[in-house]
Amino acid sequence: MTIMRNQAFRLSRYPQGKFSMDIFDMVPLPLPHFTEGEFLVMQTHMSLDPVMHAWLQQDKFHHAPPMHIGEILQSYGVGKVVESLNPDFPVGAQVVGLTGWSEYIVGNADMYLMDASLAPEAILSLFYFTGLTAYVSLFKLAQSKQGETLVISDAASAVGSLLGQLAKANGLSVLGITDSEEKCQWLMQEIGFDAAINTHSEHLESQFKAAAPNGIDIFFENSDEPIQELIYPQMNPYGRVIITDMPETQQHKAHPIPNLMQIQHKRLSIQGFEVRDYLELMQESHCVLAEYFAQGKIKYQAHVIEGFENLPETLIQYFNETAPMGKLIVRF
């Protein structure tokens, strides 16, 4: 196999405030060496996700340790096995895993084999950590029931939109919260949500009451915005709140905590959730979601940018500007 090049991006400094191009260094690398049990992967697609904000900070706040200066940046990626010393990952197999900003990476048994017929955009949008988060939240933690009402705080994100579709497929009423009218229309017309509310619109309280006339049974919180103050009073007795994927930018913001008396008297349960605690359910979630996908009950929206060299600029726009609908993916 002839390798024309292997390029990578390293972290040159920690960001101060907004992300900028000078935190990245593009460098040529030799083809990585791999040993028995490992394999060489040519990456084809990489997703840019909210967790990257935590990875690129100097202080450890998230479950994942921060990156060090000079290290290759981390991402979730899909690629093809081009050489292998592991019979479980043969040449030509499609894999997904925690990779890095490098055109070629060494894979190991921590990666997951994916059906070769699945588009890489679908894998990153509906499966792997995105799918596992939605699957565990709805079916394992919330223990959702047909006829209940689910509210999703960052509903136009990859996780939020998938979670809502799974809920609709299982007979729940779904209300999405997002930050633009365009996203509201997408959630209702394309994804099938029952209602969507723009946080920048007026009369939010009356909108919530109209959209959830029977109260709220499940609240999926992944944005930590003040609008949560309108949701807790409408929670039904024995309602469940699932909190995950909180943006690192919110860690120093002071928001009023939910009314503890309401939580007590309504017997609400509030569950913090780290997806890495449920890795043993990854294959199970893949199987379940593949069935929903094959039946046309879930679909995805991927915002795809072309070119490995465009990774830094794309990430800067992602964190400094409004996030796109669905999953942000760089294809190279």
List the helices and strands and how they pair.
Elements lengths: L6 E5 L12 E5 L10 E10 L2 H5 L18 E11 L9 E7 L3 E4 L4 E3 L5 H7 L1 H14 L7 E4 L5 H12 L3 E6 L2 H11 L3 E4 L5 H8 L4 E6 L6 H4 L3 E9 L16 H6 L3 E4 L9 H13 L7 E5 L4 H10 L6 E5 L1
Parallel strand pairs: 8-9, 8-11, 9-10, 11-12, 12-13, 14-15
Antiparallel strand pairs: 1-2, 3-4, 3-6, 3-15, 4-5, 5-7
Helix pairs in contact: 2-3, 3-4, 3-9
Give the quaternary arrangement of the chains: single chain
**Helix proportion:** 25-40%
Q: Please give the number of β-strands.
A: 15
Provide the number of structural domains.
Answer: 2
Low-confidence stretches: none
What structural class should be given to the helix and strand makeup?
alpha/beta
N- to C-terminal distance: 19 Å
Query: Which range does the strand content fall in?
Result: 25-35%
Globally, the shape reads globular
Write down the Rg: 21 Å
Average pLDDT: 91
Order of helices and strands: EEEHEEEEHHEHEHEHEHEHEHEHE
CATH homologous superfamily of the largest domain - what is it?
NAD(P)-binding Rossmann-like Domain
CATH fold-level assignment of the largest domain? Rossmann fold
What is the CATH first-level class name of the largest domain? Alpha Beta
Largest sheet report: 7 strands, mixed
CATH architect. name of the largest domain: 3-Layer(aba) Sandwich
The count of helical stretches stands at: 10
List keywords for this structure.
six-stranded parallel β-sheet, seven-stranded mixed β-sheet, 10 helices, Quinone Oxidoreductase, Chain A, domain 1, 2 domains, 27% helix, Rossmann fold, alpha/beta, 332 residues
